[in-house]
Write a structure and sequence with these properties.
Blueprint lengths: L8 H16 L2 H4 L12 E9 L2 E5 L5 E6 L11 E11 L2 E8 L5 E6 L3 E7 L3 E7 L6 H14 L2 E7 L6 H16 L4 E3 L8 H8 L3 E5 L6 H8 L25 E4 L5 E4 L13 H7 L24 H7 L5 H17 L10
Parallel strand pairs: 3-5, 8-9, 8-11, 9-10, 11-13
Antiparallel strand pairs: 1-2, 1-4, 2-3, 4-5, 6-7, 12-13
Helix pairs in contact: 3-7, 3-9
Length: 349
């Protein structure tokens, strides 16, 4: 596999400049200001989507208003619960002002090359890790998403999509690969948006929760959302013949409501989660079955490989820890140095 070419300093500056321009949004909208007597009373709202210097806010009646954001409000992401005031009239498409953000129950984060650890969405309580049998099911990818979910301490649920493409032998093999996850109490859903298998189970889990789907492109996230809520009308992308991966189709994070209750945040920021911001100790903690053994090794600096007195390695031998999960843990550690940026976020080399 060809090694990714690193950006030059000049290229990094141009990318950063273009990014700032995109975030600046429409200047006319950003400059809209109201006097205090032109604004109504404070009311609670929900951020449906964020666009640079303004955001779409949903009021208690389900109506959506595009608003400016006070500088004092701080950072805003989809899913935030806010305090806002609507204007007496609409000015240049802007209907009001967001003044404050309520404390978040949870934050879904990912490392960003320029901004360090970046909040992608707020107040989520379930992460659905969507994988697929096409082009092939990978436990290594699932484990990376599980580490990311455990790090932010949001409940993960594993979804295996497109199982209608499996024959009986393939289904049996997949069940064997998933058994270690069921053994450590991860919920697994076998799903086909075409045949309908698993859809009722998924709907039950989604109801009355704020959810997000994560997974690589091509696993059927957008098609699945279309099946669950046809009114969303998300664009779906075909699998690339050359890469085996689908083209990523979502461009802006948006909160969607299920008809029978529950919400879904669809976001482009969760295609992949880098883990380079985590230290090895935190990654080990994010493997839930490791936790009862951590701290029990003979040496404090144990690398959990062939170190003498390694309690994790012994647990693998005793079949208390799945050997493939243990191998995936080491693959994640090996990937950390390769995937770290060559500069501190927001700083110099």
């Amino acid at each position: 596999m060809a090694k990714k070419k690193k950006l030059t300093k000049g290229q990094q500056r141009r990318v950063s400049s273009n990014r700032k321009k995109r975030l600046s949004g429409n200047k006319e909208q950003a400059q809209v200001q109201w006097q205090a007597d032109q604004l109504g009373a404070q009311e609670d709202g929900l951020i449906i989507s964020r666009y640079g210097q303004h955001a779409d806010v949903e009021d208690s009646n389900g109506e959506i208003f595009r608003c400016n954001i006070r500088r004092t409000a701080g950072s805003l992401v989809t899913g935030d619960k806010v305090v806002w005031r609507r204007g007496n009239e609409v000015l240049s498409g802007i209907s009001g002002v967001i003044e404050a953000v309520h404390e978040r129950v949870s934050e879904l984060t990912r490392p960003d090359f320029y901004d360090g650890v970046k909040v992608v969405a707020a107040n989520i309580n379930q992460i659905f890790i969507v994988s697929s049998v096409v082009p092939a099911f990978s436990t290594q990818i699932v484990d990376r998403y599980l580490v990311a979910s455990e790090d932010v301490e949001i409940k993960p649920i594993i979804v295996l999509n497109k199982i209608d493409l499996l024959d009986d032998e393939g289904r049996e093999l997949l069940d064997e690969m998933l058994e270690p996850y069921r053994d450590i109490d991860y919920q697994v859903i076998m799903l086909s948006s075409k045949s309908g298998e698993g859809v009722d189970e998924l709907n039950t889990l989604l109801k009355d929760n704020v959810n997000i789907f994560v997974g690589q492109s091509g696993v059927g996230k957008s098609s699945l959302i279309n099946a669950l809520m046809p009114e969303a009308e998300l664009i779906t992308g075909d699998i690339s013949d050359t890469s085996g991966l689908g083209m990523h189709t979502t461009t802006t994070a948006k909160l969607l409501h299920f008809k029978d209750g529950g919400d879904l945040i669809d976001s482009p920021g969760v295609r992949e989660f880098g883990l380079w911001h985590l230290d090895p100790e935190r990654i080990a903690w994010c493997f839930v079955e490791f936790r009862e053994f951590l701290g029990g090794c003979k040496f404090r600096d144990c690398k959990h490989l062939d170190d003498p007195g390694c309690i994790l390695a012994q647990a693998v031998e005793d079949e208390k820890i799945d050997s493939e999960r243990f191998d995936n843990y080491h693959r994640i550690l090996e990937s950390l140095d390769n995937n770290k940026p060559n500069r501190h976020p927001g700083g110099a080399n």
